[in-house]
Amino acid sequence: PDNFFLIAGPCVVEGKDLLDEVATKVSEVCKRLEIPYIFKSSYRKANRTSASSFTGIGDQEALQLLKGISEKYNLPTVSDIHTAQEAAMAASYVDMLQIPAFLCRQTDLLIAAAETGKVVNVKKGQFLSGASMKFAVEKIKGAGNDQVLLTERGTTFGYQDLVVDYRNIPEMQASGAPVVMDCTHSLQQPNQTTGVTGGNPQMIETIAKAAIAAGADGLFIETHPNPAVAKSDGANMLQLDLLEPLLEKLVRIRKAVM
Amino acid sequence: PDNFFLIAGPCVVEGKDLLDEVATKVSEVCKRLEIPYIFKSSYRKANRTSASSFTGIGDQEALQLLKGISEKYNLPTVSDIHTAQEAAMAASYVDMLQIPAFLCRQTDLLIAAAETGKVVNVKKGQFLSGASMKFAVEKIKGAGNDQVLLTERGTTFGYQDLVVDYRNIPEMQASGAPVVMDCTHSLQQPNQTTGVTGGNPQMIETIAKAAIAAGADGLFIETHPNPAVAKSDGANMLQLDLLEPLLEKLVRIRKAVM
Amino acid sequence: PDNFFLIAGPCVVEGKDLLDEVATKVSEVCKRLEIPYIFKSSYRKANRTSASSFTGIGDQEALQLLKGISEKYNLPTVSDIHTAQEAAMAASYVDMLQIPAFLCRQTDLLIAAAETGKVVNVKKGQFLSGASMKFAVEKIKGAGNDQVLLTERGTTFGYQDLVVDYRNIPEMQASGAPVVMDCTHSLQQPNQTTGVTGGNPQMIETIAKAAIAAGADGLFIETHPNPAVAKSDGANMLQLDLLEPLLEKLVRIRKAVM
Amino acid sequence: PDNFFLIAGPCVVEGKDLLDEVATKVSEVCKRLEIPYIFKSSYRKANRTSASSFTGIGDQEALQLLKGISEKYNLPTVSDIHTAQEAAMAASYVDMLQIPAFLCRQTDLLIAAAETGKVVNVKKGQFLSGASMKFAVEKIKGAGNDQVLLTERGTTFGYQDLVVDYRNIPEMQASGAPVVMDCTHSLQQPNQTTGVTGGNPQMIETIAKAAIAAGADGLFIETHPNPAVAKSDGANMLQLDLLEPLLEKLVRIRKAVM
To answer: What value of ipTM does the predicted structure carry?
Structure first.
């Protein structure tokens, strides 16, 4: 393909206005830059550090909003699922199902996602090598679905840091699946004593440029008009108006490496 | 308490004879050494590396066998669960529910386990610090269940190794929960290119002795009469007839530290 | 041997009074508990994070003080060296030469230390496995000196933490060398933004107990009457009056494992 | 500057013919691509895993050959030094002194290198964060030398692997020093049971592309006409005739990011 694709949007569905603001802006930029765009937002967060964290506005309502975005802006959409039971429900609203990193080894979940016939994007567990993600691909293909993506999102590096290993891009591509770099969660600083995962958003550009140069097929970037007030992952989301200049640089690098 | 407790048994319920052989031997040894004993076997393995690995003999049949062991030998039993839906079912057969390490951040699962009223044993994720396991304890206590255990089972250390950090014993005890050392899975060597997790069983004794000296409240040891033919985790299970001499040494260390 | 041995003293030679206070107290305790004792203090610190840190009172003066302690209290002494040139000089004052962890791969330094005929204690690099320390032992034995010790002092675990891997005790013992656990530097928290290495001294007891249970032949513990005013490594030294109760517990564990 | 610079050559001075072959080829390519080129070869290897490994042809002879290359091809040269005593000697033959990663915290060595007035290239220790390398820069500038480079060469990631953290490029640049990516040693697989460090040379291109995209100022690439017969680091050196096509791609990426 000529260009990389982009999976982007706010971490979690907070409400209709937020989705509209992000979809309007990002779809316009991606159209201009010829970047295929998939709108991302989670309808529920099931693995927050602390039980008191925000988890969503309600599954059906959030999924309905995602479906509305898809129709209004003519965009494919993606959301993550956490149990095999959620797969069919989510699949009736979105075009791609994302498997969270912690859950990438849950065979029943991978197979249920595969059986919906939707594209399945499996995030590499923080505890897994890139090479071993081929077993996730095999589980999904074994269930009759060849549309698999793999996403790098960093690997455990001591307790309070993640490190992105760029060797994982070619190693995961060797499984036959396109590989996405998650520029948001790769920068998490987990295990903070506050129970709120930290971050380092000024590094998003470094992570993204290196990924495109190393041959990543797609990028995953959570973005929000005002990350400081976001209800989840605010520490790492890119401010919406910084996305366009970043994508312009990345398109130039892409052209240099193709 | 005067002594440490032991959670032990074969990794997965392979059949009735295996459970009887292990329960007979281990319950006799633990009675003599005054070690409280909880019989462990998984009724299903849901997160094998490869989809072609053995996952169980059937949930109901395996759980029924566990209940039979409990009654015949007068032993509490434990098995792991992987979804919120499994919690109530498993709780009608066993006395303790174990949350797998990969799933220790899934809030719905923790709460479902807590709501059964059974003891809940949460294994520390390979990607989590000991200190951050207090949030798992809070999720369970917040659901009205004060019977929580935490289990150390090693932390991601490069792609193909885990390391046990003994600082996690006092750090997890600071949450108020008793702490178990998993001497079996701590020795896993994950991400092998074969798709079969490797191991290092000659280190079980080192791991166990250090854990008791560092103040662990309990030990988790998978054991099998013939690990070489076991259907899961054979690379790390302790051969059954080596358990008694190991426990004798550990009881001596326990007396020295209390 | 019946008991473990102890290498202990203040991190760096600050002056005569400090050495006397520590030697008096520790030698008396070790005599009572039948622990062979080697007095440790560095005559110079060559690898401080920041160039403005204290490095010593002068080599000759510090070494002369160490020799005085050896004679007055009838104790063997140890200090670390940083270059091949220092080996012969230091060897004329002390009984054991210690190779710092960062330098454990410098062949010329290991051979120069070996050629003095003194005992050589090589600290495991933070970047090395226990198993690979056999090459350090071979370098020293190849220079005609069979008196080698190896010391575990933690391994790089992310940027700001070290983790002690107890598997390294039997793995280093497989080289034929007795193995020491460094309970002080294992607890360092390096790469702090202040340029002063941090620590976690409340974990000394956990580290030491686990080491003795796992079969360590010796312990290394830096101690100071008042760590808060120490000129190096204050963040991890054990307060002198806490040493005796700790050693009593450790002797009990040692008896349980022998 | 318009382009990145290149530090390249065979790992160790094996003989005159090898140096000539590499210098001829690389200087010609770099001239065409407008890449400033510094010829690199070590006159001695002082920290080989095993004492029986090749360490050099003799210091004076090797340094004399380097000086000959400098004059014949009009190239600056670099070699590494291991002790403060070597600094002045090496400085009379080469233009840049390189401090090995294991030795980057040895204050005396850094200062001795600084005092020669030559450019000093300090490799980041496998055990150090990028941010903490500012203390190395301060030590050198404090000795009156402002010509400092810092080199990323991977960080300890379990025992048998290194990982390159691209965040270290901007973090080390924040010290004011230009930052070099060592595409050779970053791919080492240390602590092999054979005593010969392993490697993964097919990843050189991935590492290099990501580095240029992330803003590295220079690259370090060891190259040899026939790595399979090289006397040191053969597992990771780039075959000489693969250098030109790689550099062409990198120059394109550089133009896209500037």
So the answer is: 0.95
